[in-house]
């Protein structure tokens, strides 16, 4: 069994342990699942990419690190836990948008058949937010969730407009499409049923893990089309890791990594400004209508 399959099995095991912990009120198992599932997916991506350090790879590592904080913060409970988790999820999704744009994705097309990729996410999210969510969300989360909804439209559209072919496109397109379903379950679980239905929580949590795993697979395939046939054994990884530790050139390499992370955060800042501009424009147009 190669290392990637082993890590994938560990991810499934962690999801199962989390569900078992929820049903049996075992806080330790619930905490372990929330803290380690997304980092394990990030580690899976790292092995798939042989721990390369292109700007996209570093952004993906950062995505799943931030995602771990997002899942962990919900354990605080109450409205503060929800606010912090949603905020960190927004940051995570911003990094994913940066990844898609670094792949060359732009939301435009001169083909009429591409129009549904933009209109369908916008229409579905707008209808769900307006008819289902607005009446039940707390006032403290109102503007945060409006921003989240706008950002989700942008994220899903970027995932559907990727200029790649084959399995890479399918994995990511399926993943970003299911993000909406995951968020619908989240809203019903926390805002409508107030976390009273454990089975709904487990389905939503499991779907969330599989969604981000699909995105990791799709990005990895696009970064290295031969990655499925170039798995690195655990022994090879340990040997390479020891070599890395004693290689003085990695000090220079580490500096490049820090510069890349800085560039990623610059991209996130620019994306945030663009998202706020879109958000205020949508809000202004909405006020005109009403």
From TrEMBL:
Q: Which domain of life is it from?
A: Bacteria
- Keywords in alphabetical order: Membrane, Transmembrane, Transmembrane helix
Chain ranges passing through the membrane: 31-47, 59-77, 83-100, 115-134, 140-161, 168-192, 198-221
The entry's protein name is YhhN-like protein
């Amino acid at each position: 069994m190669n290392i990637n399959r082993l890590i994938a099995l560990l991810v499934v095991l962690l999801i199962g342990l989390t569900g078992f912990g929820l049903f049996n009120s075992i806080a330790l198992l619930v905490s372990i699942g929330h803290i380690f599932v997304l980092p394990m997916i990030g580690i899976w991506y790292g092995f798939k990419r042989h721990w390369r350090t292109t700007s996209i790879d570093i952004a993906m590592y950062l995505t799943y690190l931030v995602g771990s904080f997002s899942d962990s913060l919900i354990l605080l409970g109450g409205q503060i836990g929800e606010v912090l988790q949603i905020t960190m999820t927004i940051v995570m999704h911003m990094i994913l948008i940066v990844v898609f744009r670094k792949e060359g994705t732009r939301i435009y097309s001169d083909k009429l058949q591409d129009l549904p990729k933009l209109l369908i996410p916008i229409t579905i999210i707008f209808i769900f937010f307006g008819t289902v969510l607005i009446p039940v969300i707390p006032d403290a989360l109102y503007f945060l969730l409006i921003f989240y909804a706008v950002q989700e439209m942008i994220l899903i559209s970027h995932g559907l407009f990727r200029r790649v072919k084959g399995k890479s496109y399918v994995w990511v397109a399926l993943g970003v499409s299911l993000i909406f379903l995951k968020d619908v379950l989240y809203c019903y679980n926390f805002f409508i049923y107030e976390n009273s239905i454990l089975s709904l929580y487990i389905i939503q949590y499991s779907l969330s893990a599989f969604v981000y795993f699909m995105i990791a697979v799709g990005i990895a395939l696009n970064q290295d089309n031969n990655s499925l046939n170039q798995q690195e054994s655990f022994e090879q990884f340990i040997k390479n890791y020891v070599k890395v530790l004693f290689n003085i050139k990695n000090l220079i390499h580490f500096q490049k990594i820090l510069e890349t992370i800085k560039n990623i955060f610059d991209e996130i800042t620019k994306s945030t400004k663009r998202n706020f501009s879109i958000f205020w424009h949508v809000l202004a147009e909405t006020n005109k209508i009403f």
